[in-house]
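Q: Hi! First time doing this. I have a protein sequence and I read that you can turn it into a structure. Is that right? Here it is:
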Amino acid sequence: MPHESSNEQQAHTADGPAAPGYGPPRVRRSRRKPKKKTLRYATWGALGLVLIGGGGAAYAWQHLNGNIQGTDVNAALGKDRPSEQKDGSMNILLLGSDSRAGTHGRYGSGISGARADTAMVLHVDKTHKKASVVSIPRDTMVKRPQCAKPHGGTAPGARQAMFNSSYQVGGPACTVKTVEKMSGVRMNHYLEVDFKGFQKLIDELGGVNITTRKAIHDPNSGLALSAGKHTLKGKQALELVRTRHGVGDGSDLGRIQLQQAFIKALIHRADTVDPLGSPAKSYDLADTATKTISADSELASADKLLGLAKELKGISPDRTDMVTMPVTYDSQDAGRVLPLKKASHRVWDALRHDKPIPKSATRDSVGDQSDSPVSAGT
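A: Yes, that's right. Below is the predicted 3D structure, encoded as C-alpha cells:
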C-alpha cells in the first residue's frame, strides 16, 4: 500500500494530464502488479423465497431479511453526487472485499487490511435485457475523495491512492463515492460479496462448469487445473476468482479475466437449476445467498433482492458485455496501473447515456489485450 501525500501536486495519466489535485505516483519498483463476483448468483438464491408458503412463510421471510446487512449509502454520501438516470437503466456497484472471511458484516477500520479487492460496475440497460460490466482494477491509482467513516468521523481525501484503499478508510460508502467521482455515473445500488459465503453457495449449487484452454497453477491461491473441462466446487471456485499468478502477466488484470469468465459460467449454472424440484434446497440456497451479501439499505431485504433477481432474469451471458476500465501500466511503479483518461471517459459516457461501450474505447488498454484462459463449460 503506497503512502499518500497531501502535497498539492499536478497529476498525470498515461494519455495526458489528469484532474487537478493529483500528485505524481510514488516511485516504487515492486514487482507486485495490478479480485469479481457478480449479482446473479446472490440474487438468484432469493428466488427460492417464492416457494415458501403456508404458516412458516412469515418466519422464513423474517429470517432471510435478518441475514442481510444494509448500509445507508444515501445518508453517507449526501447530495454531492451525479444525477440519477431517468431512462429506466440501472447501475449497481458490485464489491468483493477481503475484510469478511468468517466475519460477515464488519467493515473498514474494524478489520486490519480491509480492501475492496474486487469492484465492477454493472449497468443494466433500460430494457433490462442487456448489461455492461466494467471492472475496476484494484491497483488503479485514483483521486480518493474525503469520506465519512462508518463509525463516525471523516477520512481525508488523497490525491493519489490505490482504488481499493477507499474501502479500508471509509467502508462501502466511500468506495461508492470514489467510483461516482471518477466516473460521473450515479450508483443506484451496491452489493458486496462475502468470500466464505461465496464458497458455500457454489457447493450448494453443485459446482460450476468451466473449460481451461491451458493448465493453470498458482501456488499463492492454491489453484491447480489441467487444460480441459472442470466442475469447480466452492473451494476451487474461490481459488479461481482469486488467482492472478500463472495467468496473463501475473497481475490483477489477468485475474479480472478469470473472474469475468467465471461469472458467465455461474449464470449458465444458475439457469439450469429448477427451484421447483426441491423447495428445501431452494430455501437453503436463498438462506446462504442472503448471508453471503451486504447491500445498500434500499436493497437490503429478501423481497427487494427477489424483485431484482426477477428483473435480471432475462440477461443471459451473451447479452452481457464485460470490459476492464481502460488503464495502462505505471512506468514509475510496476505494481500499479493508471487510468487512460480519454478512453475511460468514453466508457463511462456510454453508461451515462445507456449506450453500448464502443470497442475502440478499450483498444489501447492493457486490461483487454488477450483472450481469457477460461471459458464457461457446459
